[in-house]
User: Fold this.
Amino acid sequence: MTSLQLLAAEQKSAEVTDWAARIGWLVGLALFVALLYWLMREGWKWRGTLQNDLPELPLAPDERGPATLTMSGRYHGSTTAGQWLDRIVARGLGTRSRVELTLTGAGLDVVRPGAADFFVPAAALREARLDKGIAGKVLTEGGLLVVTWQHGDRLIDSGFRSDHAAEHPEWVRTLNHMINKTETEGAR
Assistant:
C-alpha cells in the first residue's frame, strides 16, 4: 500500500448533525422564553389589579392659560413617591412613551402619543427635582426630571427625560417656584 492509499483508508466521514436533538433544544428554549414572557405579563396585570384603587387621571382643562415651559422627551414611568422601584402601572402610568410636557398656570399637561394623556393640576404639584433613576431606568446623576404630585390619597413620582437635558434645571426651578407660590397663596 502506498502512502496515499493509507491516508485514504484512515479518513473517516464527519459526524452527522443530530437535527432532531438540535430542533428539540430550540423548541424547548422557545417554550421557556414564551413562559417567561407570559409570567412577566401576568405579573404586570396583577400589579395593575392591586393598584386599581387609583382614581382616573385628570384631563387637561379647556382653559389652561399661556405656556410657561414646554419640553419634548421621554416619559419613563411613575412610582410611589420616595420609592423609586415601586412602579405604578394602573391607569396607564406604567407605559413608557414619548412625551410633550407643557407647564401653564393651571398645571402640567402630559401628552403621550400612543399612551393615555394626563394633567397634573397646579394645586396637586408637590416637588420637582433632578434624580438618577426611576423604576426600570437609571441614568447619570441629574439625568431625570422627577415631578412629585398628589393624586387622590397617593403621592406619585413621575420621571421625564428631555431630548435636551440642559432644560432640566430650568424645569426644576420653575416648577418649585410655582409650587411655593401656590402653597403661599393657599395658606392665606
